[in-house]
Amino acid sequence: MSTTHIAPVYDLGTRADYLEMGVGAKKRDHAKAGTNRIAPGFHCDAGSIDEFIELGNRLAAGHKRRVKAHGMLVNFHPDELDVRNPDDLQRGGDLALELARRAFPNSPTMVVVHDDADGGHVHAHVVILNHDLVSGLAPKKNRTHAAIKRLNDTLMREEGMRVVDDQYVAAREKWTDRRADLQAFEQSIGDRVAEAKEVALKGDLAAFNEVFEAECKTRGVDVVRTEHVVDTDAREGRRKGDVEVGITYVARDEVTPGKRPRRRRKAASKLSSEFTDAGLQQAVEAERQRRAAEAQRQAAEVQRQQRVAATAAAPPRSREELRAEFLKRTRDDEVEADTGPLAPLSPAEEQGEPQDDAVEAEVEPLAPLPADPAAVAPLPPTDEAVEETETPALATARAGHVGALAPLTPATNERYRSPIRDQQPKRDRDQAYLDRIAAVDEHVVERTEARKLIDAAVLKNVGRRDISSFRAVMHAATVETLEARETMKAAASRAYEEGNLARVKALRTAMAEGRFYVVEREDEEPVVQPGGERQYGD
């Protein structure tokens, strides 16, 4: 169970300083001891907190935005996450990050988990930069408490955790909260019902009602169920004509002072909404989801251990061997999936007799390529002074302007399929990240083979860490393109600091158009290559 809060952030530096060190005496103590407030569960899409702040300030300044980020606070109940358990702190950070990804999937995010709250509960601070890396605009959705609450409630249910202020079970109606306000008999019967509920939830959920009633009976409490038809639409969460089940608990009262022992009845709703039929069914569903999530987690752990054992037992192989095996397996699987088993040859074909030319006649012959390389129109020149360094993929692409482009993948009719798609994610939610990097790899290779410009939008949110992580399995053309893009970004930043706005514009325009080339850092003004040859394809 968790509560959420969201608000705009106008000063990233102040917010980051509070999240890392705190304020007042707490900040002074951390500074003196050389420590900070950051607990397990920390996550940052940038290389460090300082880089995250720099990125946020640069994006806000570049788009003239007053709101630099959105700050979310996610508080977890001590009954579900223990502030003294590092694993629970890590889980709190993971859940907060997942909530941020669902609310702002394309925005850089930082999560800081704290374990020093006065209430002794796990809570996570989430800072989401006010910039969508795909659209280039500020996020428009999920900026209100109601929107974040809906997403958080869905996430809590999926994780098998309780939900605050649900349709039937409100936080103020929890038995632990109401018990102190009730009389002795109500406390006695409520404690016995709570014990029976806890035992029943540990058994077979399909027979929960039967087990629950039996456990209540062993504790001296009878469960009486009645059905009635709702006669009005005025009650929240109920429609006229719905059939609702009411529960009444009957037990012997021997604790009320000044009263003789007698059997008394108490409606479930008078004790706690947790003990109503709707509350019990919700508890069953939450337990079912928790068990399913735990089973998935255990299965994933078993698979991970099997992969680790298989990797450790297998002899080391070179990158070329792994890539050759992958390409062969991919080719065989895709050809079989696309074409199915081959049809048997006809008697005429077996004898080698000529076949009908009708099919051949339907296909028009391809126009021949121009024999003279000069017939190919040259690329338009550019007036921006930029020095570039040759790379193998870039040289191949340049040669394609005047001759045949050397293929980057084996000469087949199949589309390139990135080896990253065969990578096994450590966590289920990382699969989307792997698919996105694989899509970038495939896009760059296909566009390079076709001698077309790269779609710059596809490369957004891919940086140096991604290059380092996937260099071993990523295509060489993709690695060179991404590294060239990083050199252009760095050159644009230096030009901006030097006040060379024309150079900044030229570099940014080239990147936006999908023209990536390596920019060397030189003290003197770089010289433009003749013909403006600094792009993949035409």
Task: Explain this structure.
With 538 residues, the protein is α+β, with helices and mostly antiparallel strands. The chain has 3 domains: 2-158, BirA Bifunctional Protein, domain 2; 171-285, no CATH class; 381-532, no CATH class. 45% of the residues lie in helices and 12% in strands. Strands 1-3-5-4-2 form a 5-stranded antiparallel beta sheet, sandwiched between helices. Strands 6-7-8 form a 3-stranded antiparallel beta sheet. α4 packs across α5. The radius of gyration is 32 Å and the shape is elongated. The model is unreliable at 166-172, 335-343, 352-367, 369-412 and 522-538 (pLDDT under 50).
User: Cα distance, first to last residue?
Assistant: 55 Å
> What pattern of helices and strands is seen along the backbone?
EHHEHEHEEHHHHEEEHHHHHEHHHHHE
Rg from C-alpha positions?
Answer: 32 Å
What percent of the residues sit in helical stretches (DSSP H or I)? Answer: 40-55%
CATH class of the largest domain: Alpha Beta
Beta percentage is 5-15%
Q: What spatial order of strands do you see in the largest sheet?
A: 1-3-5-4-2
The overall average pLDDT, rounded, is 78
